Amino acid sequence: MYRTETISCPYCGELQDTDIDGSGGDQSYWQDCQVCCAPILFELTVSPFTGEFAVYVKRDDD
Ligand SMILES: [Zn+2]
């Protein structure tokens, strides 16, 4: 259950595509920005009913 999401880096604001795997349920993980290499916190929320998911990006100082 992969989906490509376009997110905006919370540090530099650059848009970038990232592959999200929603099969593991709710999760959060760090991934470096492809542009400025800052650590972005991805928070993934998956609906157990529909499999639809939403992704939020945060800075480490939020
Ligand atoms: Zn960035």
Protein model, in words:
By secondary structure, this protein is mainly β. The chain has one domain (2-58). It is built from no helices and five strands. A three-stranded antiparallel β-sheet has the order 3-4-5, with no helix packed on it. A two-stranded antiparallel ribbon has the order 1-2. A hairpin with a 6-residue loop joins strand 1 and strand 2 (15-21). The mean pLDDT is 93. The structure holds zinc ion. Zinc ion binds at residues 9, 11-12, 14, 33, 35-36, 38.
Key features?
two-stranded antiparallel ribbon, mainly beta, three-stranded antiparallel sheet, 62 residues, 0% helix, elongated, binds zinc ion
Biggest beta-sheet profile: 3 strands, antiparallel
Domains (count):
1
| Distinct compounds present | zinc ion
Distance between the termini: 29 Å
Would you list the SSEs in sequence order as H and E? EEEEE
Structural class determined from secondary elements: mainly beta
Unreliable stretches covering 5 or more consecutive residues: none
Estimate the strand proportion. over 45%
Based on Cα principal axes, name the global outline: elongated
Mean pLDDT: 93
Total helix count?
Answer: 0
Helix content: under 10%
Q: Kindly report the spatial arrangement of strands forming the biggest sheet.
A: 3-4-5
Number of strands: 5
- Evaluate the radius of gyration: 12 Å
Q: Summary?
A:
The chain has strands at residues 2-8, 15-21, 27-32, 39-46, 53-58. With 62 residues, it is mostly beta strands.
What is the strand and helix layout of this fold?
Layout: E1 2-8, E2 15-21, E3 27-32, E4 39-46, E5 53-58
Antiparallel strand pairs: 1-2, 3-4, 4-5
The protein binds zinc ion.
Zinc ion binds at residues 9, 11-12, 14, 33, 35-36, 38.
